[in-house]
Every structure is written in structure tokens, then in C-alpha cells.
Please model this.
Amino acid sequence: MDLTEQQIERYSRHIILQDVGGKGQLKLNKAKILLIGAGGLGSPAGLYLAAAGIGTIGLVDGDVVDLSNLQRQIMHSTATLGQPKVESGRKTLSAINPEITIKTYHQLVDAENILSLVSQYDIVLDGSDNFTTRFLVNDACFFAKKTLISASMFRFEGQLTTIKPHQGYPCYRCLYPEPPPAGLVPNCQEAGVLGVLAGTMGILQASEAIKEILDIGETIADKLLIYDALEMKFRKVGRPKDPACPLCGPNPKIKDLSLDYTVTCTI
Amino acid sequence: MIKVRIPTPLRPLTKGQGEVETNAGSVVEMIEVLNSTHPGIKDRLCDETGELRRFVNIYVNEEDIRFLKGKDTSLKDGDEVSIVPAIAGG
Model:
């Protein structure tokens, strides 16, 4: 498959980059990326991935667009209030780039459906809003050997890392072995978040995903990036593989998705 | 002096300060000192048995203390400590 004349023009600013070129653009056009959550992080990531010509973008989200989402979830608009977020997102992404395929899943992810979802994609972006999903997605991507780009945010602070234990790097449980019990760490949107922080973190996820597909640059898989918007500081801390990791360590306790992943969301 | 970076979720305990300075010879001592000046912080970092919680990481100069000597990891003048809890917002 070659690029059409129109594609050469659409992606010309990529193609002239030495590290991308026509070959790299073709890789992007063939890539399949799943966005878990079509909200604050999934919106900016989705917009740029669609613009970049990612061939297939999957959107998973069980919610509908709410007025309180529009402060940060830029894939949606006042005109799509009340619609499933995946449908609203599909319209926006198709308008940016009608050449790509957008698959929508208007559902929550759970232990029953997650493996079949992630196995259809090359890379997964976690933009979910709760620990239950984050641990479930980590474990599923581990078993399916899929690279996971994880970002999360809280008020004015964001975290980002790439998770690819199948390439020898640590998993999410190496970083945080267990989710917090209910009430100890606020984990709901109701805690508040600076809208534009979602943009910063979601776009960093998209950037790392594109680098993974093109196999260029440095990975953040052995680091955790912490962004403090108030202090305007980006810091990286080390993220080693945990030899006692219950998932990716040499003596794993977690061998399938039969755990109870439920963590009650309480502030 | 040791600089301790306080994450957003714990800043209500430090009157909003993102960074506090302290003197301590180890992480466990630092937690006690912080708790005396900012009561409640120990409960957020440690469980009932005094062990560090498994969803809060403490870094000394960018190294996770779980891979050093845990809460017995020593601190010296000029060290920078970061407290980094898991966050889940998306």
C-alpha cells in the first residue's frame, strides 16, 4: 500500500521529517490504537492521533457527554450533550480525518471484555478515571503483551509513563503494587482538575504512542514523569522493575483477571 | 536541610505548600518530623503497622526508596525527597 497524492499532502509535514518519512507515515496509517476513556485525556490524544493518520482508533467509554465535561473534554461539544461520548468522539475525529477507521464501544471495560478489546489493537492509551480500570487495563495489557501508555491527573498535577513489561520494562504494579482502599486517595473527577492539564497529559500520551509506532526517540518506560502545572515543573523519577511484582515478577500471584478489581470511589 | 516535595492531594496538610524543608537522618525520621509539624501526614503515608502504603511512593533524589532501604533509607543534607501517590483522574 502506498500513500495517495492527497495523503502525501495531508501528512507532508510528517513525511519531510527524517525520523518519520513516507515509511513512518505508512506505519502510522496501519497502526491501531485503543483509547480507554473518551474524556479529558482521551479527547486531546484522540484529536492528535486522528490528525496524525492513525489508521484505526478505538474509543471505549460508557458515559454520555455532560455539561461539566466540556471544560476539558475537547472531543465533545455543546452540540453533542447527552450523546454517548464514543459517538460524539467519532464525529469529531472523523471530521478531522475522514480517512481513518474509528471503532466505538459504548461500554465500561471489565474483566470479561477487556482482553478481547485490547488484543485487537497495537497500543492502548489509558485515560480512565478510576483505579479499578487502571489496574485491570494494566493486567490485561500484560497478558495480551500490548504496550500501554498511562497518564493520570489530579487537580494541577499529572503523571505519565509507558508500560511494556513484554519488552523487559516494569508494569504499573511495579510502580504502585495495589490500588488505594476507598477514601484514602481521592480519585474522582469531583476532586477537580485544571481543564488544560488534560490537554498537556493527553497530548504527551499521543506523542509517546506515535514514538512507539515509529520506534524513534527515548522511551519513558523506565521513568515516571510528574508534571506540576502550578510550579511549571516537569520531573522524572526512576521506575525500576519490582522483583516482587505480583504480576510481572518471577513468582507472580496474579495469573489471570479473576481478581476483585473493585475499588470504591470515595473522596 | 532536606527539601520534601508534597503532592497535591497532601497539600491540605501543609497549608497548601508544595515544598517543605526538614532535617532528618532517614526517611522514617523524616516522616515523624513532618508529622509533628504537619499532623496527619504520617497516616497518609503509612498504614496501621507503620509500613509505607503500597500506593504512595517516596523518592530520594529520584530513586524509589522501595528499591533502596525502604523507610530506613538514609537522608543527608541537600537531598530532595518527593512523595508521589497514585492518582487516577482521566
In short: Chain A has nine helices and eight strands. Chain A has one domain: 31-238. The mean pLDDT of chain A is 94.
